[in-house]
Amino acid sequence: MNRALEILKERGFIQQCTDIEGLSRLMDEGPVTLYEGCDPTGPSLHIGHMVPYFAIRHLHEAGNNAIVLMGGGTARIGDPSGKTSMRQIISYEEIDANAKRFLAQLDNFMSFDGKTLYSDNNKNWLADLNYIDFLRDIGRHFSVNRMLSFEAYKMRLETGLSFIEFNYQLLQSYDFLQLYKRHGCRLQVGGDDQWGNIVAGIELIRRVEGAECFGLTFPLVTTSDGKKMGKTEKGALFLDPSMTSPYEFFQYWRNVQDADVERFLLMFTFLTVDECRRLAKGADAEINKAKEKLAWEVTAIIHGKEEADKALQAAKAAFGGAGLGDVGEIPSVALAAARLDAGIAVLDLFLESKLVGSKSEARRLVQQGGASVNGVKVADESSVFSTKDLAEGALFLRAGKKRVCRVVLE
Predict the structure, then answer these.
(1) Tens of pLDDT along 362-396?
(2) Can you give the residue ranges of every domain in the chain?
(3) What's the pTM?
């Protein structure tokens, strides 16, 4: 097997491939141009988006060419793959603004050089497409019966599939055809929920151009307990620091389950395979060091080494017995001095810090011994705190072992 594909295999990236032996032979002949598409339907990429881009970095560093395709056209209708309901329609202006943000985040991650690693946008060929000509030239190659056999469509037929979404597979297939014609692209990569769309694109190119192309998908990553990876209590783990702070980003990785450490080190860092496996072999204190290493590496990759260092120091201050000193990166909320002067009930304090979602949850936290203020466990749910309880200008709240917040004065 081609070395680039071996790297992906040993790091756990390969889920399905249309012809792994044929793709390996093609890669052995010289650089292959590949692409991955992403619809900019939100204001920021999240960590779930990044699995294909980590794989692309490995493929690019092995000498292949890569195109990052922004779905400025396809985002206008929405992909039904992996969705239980129709995606919310957003304005063209929002889509364009999101695409700029996505590309800035990806440029920070992989550094576009404009020659072997660059971007394109499918609105360049989809926005002004003549629908009648498209149906005559492209739609005639698609079998409705075959389209309905793909899992993405079968799932949505149970909840309702709109006609606008039904067109999506044709458009994504047309993307692959256009990239083949414009850039000589021979490989599409993506999450495994894209398998049906990828296969359809390969078949379209074969019918229209008589050329052989390939598809490679990556697993949809879940945690060892079956939950969707990258989900936090606040929602998705976003790359935008204004949506998920570097500290919160760091803490997500620091708190992963022991069983996930090796897999996440292999997929979300560029440490050697041997080092990833060595780090994950430890137990107790050693596995915690491995989690800290994982957290620092991923945060440094996404946010830079300086932010990773800050997050590490803040975590040590919050959880490592270092007192309340270097905690500037810890999430905080500001309360008016007059309000704190008058005193605020502990249940309200934890609710407003967003460490809990309701007063009843705050009450249970106190009753179960999981709430502390400035390192002292709160035993009475009727406790009241005021400015006289400030330590180094703040109240340091902890909910359980992993969630912390500083309450500061406005």
Answers:
(1) 999 999 988 888 878 898 988 999 888 887 778 88
(2) 3-218, 231-319, 332-409
(3) 0.81
Architecture field, domain 332-409: Roll (3.10)
CB 295 within 8 A of CB 253: yes
- 231 tagged catalytic: yes
> Of the residues 58, 83, 316, 364, which is catalytic?
83
What is the rounded distance in angstroms from the CA atom of residue 345 to the CA atom of residue 385? 6
Our answer to whether residue 398 is catalytic in this structure is no
60 a catalytic residue: no
CA nearest neighbour of 158 among 167, 168, 148: 148
Q: What is the CATH number of domain 3-218?
A: 3.40.50.620
Burial of 113 (0-12, 13-18, 19+ CB in 10 A): exposed
232 is catalytic: yes
Check 87, 146, 316, 364 and give the catalytic one: 87
The single residue of 19, 193, 258, 309 carrying the catalytic annotation is 193
Q: Is 193 a catalytic residue?
A: yes
Mean pLDDT, residues 261-273 taken together: 97
The catalytically annotated residue of 58, 231, 359, 363 is 231
CATH topology of domain 231-319: Tyrosyl-Transfer RNA Synthetase (1.10.240)
